[in-house]
Amino acid sequence: GIISLISLxxxxxxxxxxxxxxxxxxxxxxxxxxxxxxxxxxxxxxxTAPPLFGWSSYGxxxxxxxxxxxxxxxxxxxxxxxVCLFIFCLVIPFGIIVYSYGKLLCAVRxxxxxxxxxxxxxxxxxxxxxxxxxxxxxxxxxxxxxxxxIATFGKPGLITPAASIIPSILAxxxxxxxxxxYVFLNKQV
Length: 189
Known about the structure:
By secondary structure, this protein is mainly α.
């Protein structure tokens, strides 16, 4: 799950950088691609390894068919890890996504001010794509984050195993929506 969040943030930033460059992209140089992949996997590893070393723990999630962080433990060790996960693996990636797509949209608006006819249509398509991607990101990850925070800081038993299934599935399926949205809403693909 964390690698999908970080990958979406890296992809949004790279899409912004690619679309706003004044020079043509070099499609034969994969150095930046590999750097992005390695950094996103390393960042994810940094945030998924601590339970293996005693900062929180892993255990069955929901009805026991998947494994995740132990959301139901109420001790300070676990709660601090949950808060850090929330900030560094949801809030910050979401901030990068909003920043990248916001800057991309501003760049497209500036270009459409120069080219009045075709620029306006392109701007509207990119705006729709950005809004759909951000909404999908929020629809996938906010229910899961809310369930995790309620399970961690709410009353014991408030989140039943059955109630945690749909947010878990939504979060784990989030990586499939971004490419689909990009393909269907981008005429350049």
